[in-house]
Write a structure and sequence with these properties.
Layout (H helix, E strand, L loop, with lengths): L4 H7 L6 H5 L2 H4 L5 E5 L3 H18 L10 H4 L4 E7 L4 E9 L8 E9 L9 H15 L4 E7 L3 H6 L3 E8 L2 E8 L3 H10 L2 H5 L14 E2 L5 E8 L1 H6 L1 H18 L3 E11 L2 H18 L3 E8 L4 E9 L14 E6 L4 E2 L8 E2 L6 H8 L1 H5 L3 E4 L4 H12 L3 E5 L11 H6 L5 E6 L12 E9 L4 E4 L5 E5 L10
Parallel strand pairs: 4-5, 10-11, 17-20
Antiparallel strand pairs: 1-2, 2-3, 3-4, 5-7, 6-7, 8-9, 9-12, 10-12, 13-18, 13-19, 14-15, 16-18, 17-19, 20-21
Helix pairs in contact: 8-15, 11-12
Amino acid sequence: MLLDGSQASAATERPYDILALLGDRSTLDRGTSFHVEEAGTRRELADYRRLRQDVFVHEQGLFEGHDLDDRDTDPRTLVLVAKDTAGTVLGGVRLGPVDDGPDLGWWAGGRLVVAPSARGLRGIGAALVRAACARAEAEGVLRFDATVQLRGEPLFRRLGWRAVRPTAVANTPHMVMRWPIGRIAEQATATKSALGPLLAALPAPPGFVGDDGAPVPGTDVIAACDAIVSSMVERDPEWAGWCAVLVNVNDLAAMGASPLGLLDALGARDAAHAARVLAGLGRASRAYAVPVLGGHTQLGVPAALSVTALGRTAHPVPGGGGRPGHAVRLTADLGGGWRAGYRGRQWDSTSHRRTDELRAMTGAVAAARPAAAKDVSMAGIAGTLGMLAEASGCRAVLDVAAVPRPPEATVGDWLTCFPGWAMLTADGPGAPPLPAGPAAGAVCGELTTGEGVGLRWPDGEITEAVASTVTGMGAA
């Protein structure tokens, strides 16, 4: 749905057909003679607003004089229009952030209109609604609402929208409706949902179910082990080597353990590829000042990389130590940017940091000793919070507006990406922040009774991000 440079140039040569990009077969298979695109000229915007004037002012009498408001002058507002083969605007819809503050991923659609001559079996209204939903999700939106006239409610229900509550606009009954966006739940499910049944037969140390590391019985040693996705080892070997150190040191840090050393197991197609992986691993080992103690390397095999980390603490911090009433804090390194090739999925906040900065962050949990801690994994901030809550036997509520976030990242991307270094902690209200050097921290939610993760918005409404448990492993 978003245009990159090559798509933008192509869009100037031919209509940018959102229905085709959506694969909207239900509309395209009718042999439809219209397409949907973003309004790109003043004339198209004027034609859309003229349709609104004709329908909402003259035909329906909802407004006097005009129906324009401050959403029309907000530069972030997008307008999608349906056009016939001659370029005539047959209908349109607008969408954008709900208020004038920072874009928190809460958008609203509105002013859906179809010309009287184009109504009926052509499906223009439904196509515009589907296109708006897809565009909102492509923009990283996590809450998408619309205030719909009662006559339009059946259409929205048929398209999968859910009714929230009745309201009135221009003294006319309307229904507030919401498009269900399952991005966070899908991310958590894809990465973690199979763990409970899969690992049920394996023993876990009491009190440390689902933790980032495991206390070695009879010692003060913490062991952690993480593998890197094979496709990443294949296509980005240096970064894979760096991340193998990063994720394992983070696992130790979440338990308040000081790192002692690393062991690596590497498979590679040839020596040249192995050397690139080991170069990234060695660079990270030096940056974190954590030695590689040994390992195993095999050539002539598919790409594979896993690292085991050993650390030490006499008092490990559990991931399941939270309780109802505890405050949730996110502490994250907002420096850096999206890793090339992983935009919206992996934030690189570590590769430019000095050793003293990295050690300050990885030692923060040990210094503050909160009741519970988990480093943010591939489940993202919201999914990892769900795991902390699940291990604690709680539900979590996350205040979207309070989450520390780099300005370059949408809320949707930030809550679901791997953020480099980020730590979720739970502790009593008023507990001190983590002394994490360059990282930023803020209280941004709380644990309550129940299960799952809710997102609390500035209007006080809570939407479900994760309806149930994340891993199925249960409370620690």
